[in-house]
Amino acid sequence: MNVTQDPHQRHEVKVDLMAVVAAVIDNCPRALTIKQGKALPSGPFELGHRSLQAGLRDWVEQQTGHRLGYIEQLYTFADRDRMADEPERAISISYLGLTRDERKDGQAPRDWRSWYDYFPWEDHRKGPPAILADFILPRLKVWAEGPGEEAGEERYHRIAVAFGLDGRPWNEELVLQRYELLYEAGLVDEALRGRKGSHTPPVPGRSMIADHRRILATGIARLRTKIKYRPVVFELMPPVFTLLQLQRAVEALSGRLVHKQNFRRLIEQQELVEETGETTSETRGRPAKLFRFRPVVLMERTAAGTKLPVIRA
Amino acid sequence: MNVTQDPHQRHEVKVDLMAVVAAVIDNCPRALTIKQGKALPSGPFELGHRSLQAGLRDWVEQQTGHRLGYIEQLYTFADRDRMADEPERAISISYLGLTRDERKDGQAPRDWRSWYDYFPWEDHRKGPPAILADFILPRLKVWAEGPGEEAGEERYHRIAVAFGLDGRPWNEELVLQRYELLYEAGLVDEALRGRKGSHTPPVPGRSMIADHRRILATGIARLRTKIKYRPVVFELMPPVFTLLQLQRAVEALSGRLVHKQNFRRLIEQQELVEETGETTSETRGRPAKLFRFRPVVLMERTAAGTKLPVIRA
DNA sequence: CCAATTATGCTCCGATTGAGCATATCATAT
DNA sequence: ATATGATATGCTCAATCGGAGCATAATTGG
Asked: Are A84 and A172 contained in the same domain?
């Protein structure tokens, strides 16, 4: 593209497709990665691709061997790394995919990584992680008071909202806001790249190339939000499951615990599932009834609402 | 672009930006249009644009004279009209903008069109519109039973869910699903273009160029959803207003009526607003107190939730 | 048989929500 | 000035929902 720099020149742009593919494996919410967990499956939109979605599916399958089921669009953004100087830009269109790990024997294992390897502060199933009080919050407070245009009150307020300080509740949906605060505060590896000088070491949590981790945060936030009003857990569950398994999946995704009896009450009164008639005794105690999702719900899923109870304070 | 048709050739793509700009004027939800209401503000992403959002703002301002405030991304899609044959594709990135009509005297008037000019079946403030029972549903039922791969049960079910048949409640959020059903059924002008032969005339409601009306439907659906859990009405209200004005705005957007006393209770208990101390007697009856949104809420808007009560069945 | 473990049923209570009655305060017509 | 119509605003009541916990049932492993 040798285009003169006329500002009104229409120009063409490279398009990248990228996927956050989520599954729950071993009671752990995971994302499908490549490059030893350093990147999300992604690739350029090519002439041979019938559509954006088709292109994405091709890339994911080619890079990971995994065939996608349900996907939805996440976000489109102009890659901020390149924004500054180069006139030649790229646009990334990201998707969220929900699946199960249906690897058959003999196939290569996929690289499923726990969300919480990348965002250890997001798993509150065993209470607020210690890194929050020990590392993250103290450093954020330093940053809030430190130099900068909008330091002080304003910054502290954003932190307090995002991390649930001063009596505010922890809101598990604010994954992206929390990551972006850490980024702005220079507390994640991605924010330090290309900057000279010595920095305080980043906060715990694996990083990824470019802004893949930010996209991952966007996907997690979307799923945590959506799970509360749309029956999307379906896509993540095996065809038949116990209510406890379902509960564990929800807990894994939201990073919070749920009141068992109330969870069952809710699920049952919403008529999302039906008994198969079978029971399982894979666990130690009393055998659990097996359930499947009701076919009607699968059909009405676009419309139907699901309320999932997440324990508050 | 003279690219050989190698399917794995990476290629570059034109990017269009498009906006659904919403405001409530005269208790009527409106969108900013151009070309006598036939199109949404839109234009190509150009080299001179600092970012996608900046490009969008430029185009809207240039085409309508309106300066955008709050915007959020709606959806990105490969234009389906061009998908079929031409290898040279375009991608449209659409945004939802929320504003008020702040036209000063002397400025050219903007072309604000009522949503319900385009989607007359979406306004249920005076009960279900007659066109539904008189035109739309009968024709949809004919289509459901007519020829086609997935005719019959399946189609009927989709219609029933989207339009609230057989005891199902009307769900005001399903704007897009309803439009798409009408499109599939060949009942809107856009679906008939380029098809030969005589057709049954389309259902009432203005059409737009390309798929602009579909984007508009997407925007309306998004706003109707979002208004229920995020305090976004703010962006649409003047700095000071009465509770009834606020209620009318919500009703206009959702297309449904709201229980007055409960609406007030909800708004007040959520501490979204505060009294200014003033009252107004612009209306006939008892003067109403004036309110403004609480500054805290404006700051926490990303996080805070708003529950707006929409009357059920 | 006992202890540990998991499943499942049921109760209680406070908060939320839908619906409606009653009263207050204004403008306008008579 | 008085009645009427209109809007604003306060309050009640019942139904439902949602959070929390107790109690019981059905297993497995000593």
From this structure: no
